[in-house]
Write a structure and sequence with these properties.
It is a single chain. The protein is of the alpha+beta class. It is built from twelve helices and 19 strands. It has helices at about 60-80, 105-110, 110-115, 170-180, 190-200, 210-220, 220-225, 265-275, 300-310, 330-335, 350-355, 365-385, and strands at about 10-15, 25-30, 50, 55, 90-95, 120, 130, 135-145, 145, 150-155, 160, 235-240, 245-250, 250-260, 280-285, 290, 315-325, 340, 365. The strands form five sheets. Strands 9, 10, 12, 14, 15 and 16 form a six-stranded antiparallel sheet that branches. The protein has a five-stranded mixed sheet with strand order 1-5-2-6-18, with helices on both faces. Strand 7 (about 130) and strand 8 form a beta hairpin. It is globular and about 80 Å long. The protein starts with 11 loop residues before the first strand and ends with a helix.
């Protein structure tokens, strides 16, 4: 199935029809990738080279590896004659990295009959972590909202040789940028962070500060994972003002990347910004608002994740987490009320290494982790579809 508008590639939907007496399950993935500069790589970024048990290439981790594993899981089950209780669906979308509306969003809006599902497995987590001396596999059950906004600061233009007769919007914007960059938001204790800390520590945190303190007791890396899940974030990333060196700008535009906790709206976000910046000659404009959805943890799909983890390692447990960024899962949660998790297990490559390779040079994925992913996806389909 392909787009009716120009798009980087096609959307593929494949279905293994079910008996009709059980829930449907969808394997979601995307085939588009970010750019790659061959000069930065020690292998052809689009060569798909197999080297020392790893597949090298752009998208190996994000997320063509999971695309391939999902296809293999569906195909092998079909060849074995597996008949699920509900439909088993494989979807590889064309557009996730840019988010131009040609991929998951378009499918949910234009062809809901093709992708409607009860449960969904997507990217977002699955890493094996040793926390407090115990093994855990992260499983994302929620995601923050991507809600960037534009701060437009107004002044008065003039010749740069006579700055006193102008009102430099760039200079006026500088302290505002500093305020946004240094802002320490009020923290909130979300259900996902509470469940994560209960799973890892065995104790229920009493406050956001208590949750962060308990995470720091486990380790600095774990605390760094938890900290952005307790509040919204502001990260000024782009600024534009005068197009000429000798012209003092009348307008300075600043784009701020901002991520909101599930349940927080852009209206609340901009209220926080106005309170922070105070009165002044500026305007705020929301640029988009995607994500910010969650799924419950107590579901048959969670039980499938837990049973697979226990089979793999008897002393390991899955741990729920909220994704600091966002994924395409939110389109399905919003359109169909789908229970969506991000889980593609990995243990051959550590999270610390994987995090430095995604969207970077020499991206690669161990074949062992691809095999692990196939095994989990088959288990999930058989658990829900029996």
């Amino acid at each position: 199935m392909s787009c009716t508008r120009a798009c980087p590639s096609a959307n593929l939907v494949a279905r293994l029809a079910g008996r009709g007496d059980g829930p449907s399950l969808l394997f979601l993935s995307h085939t588009d990738v970010v750019l790659a500069d061959a000069a930065e790589w020690s292998a052809d970024p689009f060569g798909g080279e197999l080297r020392d048990g790893e597949v090298w290439g752009r998208g190996a981790l994000d997320m063509k590896g999971q695309v391939a594993a999902s296809a293999v899981a569906l195909a092998t089950l079909a060849r074995e004659g597996f008949e699920p209780a509900g439909d088993l669906i494989f979807v590889a979308t064309a557009d996730e990295e840019v988010g131009a509306g040609f991929g998951a969003q378009w499918l949910c809006e234009a062809h809901p009959y093709a992708v409607r599902c009860d449960y969904l497995i997507n990217e977002g987590s699955g890493e094996r972590l040793e926390l407090g001396g115990k093994p855990f596999y992260m499983c994302s059950v929620a995601e923050k909202m991507s809600a960037p906004f534009r701060l437009r600061v107004r002044g008065r233009s003039g010749h740069a040789s006579m700055p006193g007769i102008a009102d430099n919007a760039l200079v006026k914007a500088a302290p505002m940028i500093t305020k946004l960059g240094e802002y320490v938001p009020d923290r909130q204790l979300t259900p996902e962070v509470t469940a994560l800390l209960e799973t890892v520590t065995g104790a229920t945190p009493s406050s956001p500060e208590d949750a962060l303190a308990r995470a720091e007791e486990i380790g600095s890396f774990f605390a760094a994972m938890v900290e952005p899940l307790l509040a919204l974030t502001f990260s000024p990333t782009m600024a534009s003002a005068s197009q000429k060196r000798n012209v003092i700008p009348a307008i300075c535009d600043v784009v701020v990347d901002s991520r909101l906790l599930p349940g927080t709206s852009p209206t609340e976000q901009l209220g926080v910004v106005r309170a922070l910046l105070g009165e002044g000659e500026y305007e705020l404009e929301s640029l988009e608002a995607h994500g910010g959805t969650r799924s419950p943890i107590d579901t048959p799909l969670w039980a499938a994740v837990a049973s697979w983890v226990q089979q793999l390692e008897s002393d390991a447990r899955p741990a729920p987490i909220c994704v600091a960024g966002f994924t395409d899962s939110h389109w399905f949660r919003q359109a169909f009320g789908t229970f969506a998790y991000g889980f593609f297990p990995s243990r051959a490559m550590s999270l610390e290494i994987a995090a430095t390779l995604i969207h970077s040079a020499d991206e690669r994925v161990p074949v062992e982790d691809l095999e692990l992913g196939v095994d989990f996806l088959r288990h999930a389909a058989q658990s829900l579809g029996s």
